[in-house]
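Protein in question quoted for reference:
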Amino acid sequence: MRIVVIGAGAMGSLYGGLLARSGHEVTLVDRWQEHVDAIRMKGLRLDGITGEIQVRLAAATEARPASAEVALIQTDTNATREAAEAAARALTPEGFAVTLQNGVGNVETLAKVLGEARVVGGLSYHSALVKAPGRVTHTHAGPTWLGELDGRPSARVEALAAAMAGAGFEPVAVDNILGHIWTKFVHNTAINAVCALLGLRVGEVSMSAGADALQTRIVEETLAVVRAKGIELVDADPMASIKQFCTLKFNKPSMLQHMEAARRTEVDSLNGAVVRFGKELNIPTPYNEALMWMVKGMEEHRMRLKADGPFDYERLEAAAAARAQAS
C-alpha cells in the first residue's frame, strides 16, 4: 500500500514508521525541516513500548502529486484544512484520506475538500512523544478504530485495517465511527486541557482533588451538550471510564506536549467546540469556557516567550509609563 502521512509529528511518525517497517511504501510529510532532514539522513528512530527500532522511509516537506493510495491525516486540528488540500494533491484519483486526529470537525473539513466519498473516519488510542528530530517514543498502545462515514463495510477499510494489523496496531472496523469519534472527543475534553494548563500527566489528575473536581465539571457540561445534539456514544458511562483511565495511565497528552513546546494547542477543537455547541444549543458551559481561555492565555504567553525570549519587566513598565504620560 502506498501511504502518505500528512503531519509527521509524534503520532504521524509512529504510524508511518511502523507501517513502513511492515513493508508498505510510506512517505512522511511535515513542515518541520529539521525532523524531515534527520529522517532522510539517519532514518526514523522509535523507542518506548515497541522497543528500539530504526526505520528507513521517505520524508519530505511536500508530497509528490498523485503518488498515494491513502493519505493518513495526523496534523493537529488547526491545520486540518491545509492537510486536506495537501491530500487532494497527493492522492491518486481512487485514493482516500483517513483521519486519526483528536477533536470533532476534522471529518467534515476533509469532506468539504475531498468529497465525503473519499474520507474514512478513524481515531487512535495510541500516544507518542517526539524526543528530538527523527526520534519518537511510543508511550501508550490501544485500539485504532476505522469506519466508513455511512456505517457500511467496505473493502478499503478492510485493506487499511489489515495493513495496520500487520504493522502491530490493533485496528477495529466499526459501523458507527462517528459515535467512536465523539466518545473520544468527550475523553479528550476531560483530560487534555486540564493536563496542559496544570502541567500534569494523565494519572496525576486523579491524584489532585482540585484537578479531579474540575474534570468532573468539564465532563458534565460536555455530556449535556452531546445529549442535546443527539449523539450516540459507544460508552454507556463515559465519566466512569475517564476516571478509571486517569488512575491507570501516566503519559503526557498531546496538548501538554504542545504547551511545553510553546506550540499552538488543539483546545479550539476540544473544549472550545463544547463552548460553541453549547451556545448554539443554549446550554451553559462555564467550566469549559474558563478552561479554554486559560489554556489559550498560557499558550499565547509561552509562544511569545519562545519568540522573544525572557521579558525585561523594567523596560515594559517604563514603556507603559511613557504611554500613559503621553496620553
Observations:
- The mean pLDDT is 96.
- The longest helix spans residues 286-308.
- Residues 252 and 267 are 15 Å apart (CA to CA).
- The longest strand covers residues 91-99.
